[in-house]
Design goal:
heterodimer; A: about 140 residues; mainly alpha; B: about 180 residues; Rna Polymerase Sigma Factor, Chain: A; 2 domains; about 0% strand
């Protein structure tokens, strides 16, 4: 069997014929017609006016919204009771003596009537036994 | 042709674009026809792909940054268009790309733009059996006689890899043609 060599025998061409010039002339003409036209973009006066009207409307709406936003912001600055309690417990230097000084008789009555602060006998006994400064409090 | 940078400027300038594009068309339509024809094999399909290629070139001129040569950029677009066309046609017909190309080779004898003999048809049949990349490299090197550096720029593959690919392709084709 004869061995086939691509590079030693005369070169084998593809066999494809390039079409005649007429084909390419027609091809070019067709192609040029199909190309997208580069026409400059025109913006109508109405479109320009519309944009300006939209901008003015947007500014107007913003101007109306600003006072209500400010109002909402000032309302939200009120401190809620939980935050206040947390602040007093963990962040401030207020101790129980300061609090006692602030309370008057009415407040103490309110606490005793609205809150159940009754202590059991055993608890009172334990406090009296463990407290060394009892005499000091009695004198006071 | 003019200095390439100057020519690209003419292509990008709306005032000179049409004339410059006509020049581009005149210079590249024949070599690109031959390049696409070698890939898609059928004349009518080649004409369609060539048209799509030039439309894409025109639409993407503004994105061409001159990093590669105009020649290799256009060949890259033509190659991609041809391969995409083949895949889409095969998918539409519900057959593989290889079967589609075999059918196109069988129809070559009736093609007015083909004057090849039995050896040329046997060579095309042998090429179809190669992997797609090897087919491309072989056709660009053997039929179109492009330099490895040019093929490298078009396909984005190193010269070394192209040489290896071409060598494998030649060996396989020679083996096939020897047994047949």
């Amino acid at each position: 069997m004869k061995e086939f060599k691509l590079n030693t025998i005369p070169k084998i061409e593809s066999g494809f014929k390039t079409p005649e010039d007429l084909f390419f002339e027609k091809f070019s003409a067709n192609l040029i017609e199909q190309l997208p036209k580069n026409e400059p973009k025109t913006i109508s006066l109405f479109q320009k006016k519309k944009a300006i009207i939209m901008m003015v409307a947007a500014i107007f709406v913003l101007a109306l919204l600003i006072p209500s936003v400010i109002n909402n912001a000032s309302r939200s600055s009120e401190i809620d009771p939980v935050t206040l309690e947390n602040y007093l417990s963990y962040q401030s230097n207020v101790n129980q003596y300061d609090l006692i000084n602030v309370l008057d008789e009415e407040d103490i009555d309110n606490i005793s009537t609205n809150t159940n602060i009754a202590l059991e006998d055993k608890t009172i006994e334990d406090i009296l036994i463990s407290n060394n400064n009892l005499e000091h409090y009695i004198i006071e | 042709m003019l200095d390439e940078k100057e020519f690209i400027q003419q292509l990008l300038n709306p005032k000179t674009q049409n004339d410059a594009f006509q020049k581009l068309l005149h210079t590249y339509q024949k070599p690109l026809y031959n390049h696409i024809r070698n890939i898609v094999l059928d004349h009518d399909d080649t004409a369609d792909v060539l048209q799509n290629t030039f439309i894409k070139v025109f639409q993407n001129l503004k994105n061409f940054k001159g990093e590669s040569k105009l020649f290799s950029w256009m060949y890259r677009i033509a190659t991609n268009e041809a391969l995409t066309f083949l895949n889409q046609k095969a998918k539409k017909s519900g057959i593989s790309s290889e079967t589609l190309q075999s059918k196109a080779i069988d129809n070559l004898k009736a093609d007015v733009y083909f004057d090849g003999n039995d050896i040329q048809i046997a060579l095309h049949k042998a090429i179809v059996t190669l992997p797609k990349k090897q087919q491309l490299v072989f056709k660009m090197k053997y039929f179109e006689e492009l330099k490895y550096e040019e093929i490298s720029e078009i396909l984005g593959t190193s010269v070394g890899a192209l040489k290896a690919s071409y060598h494998h392709a030649v060996k396989k084709i020679e083996a096939l043609l020897t047994t047949n």
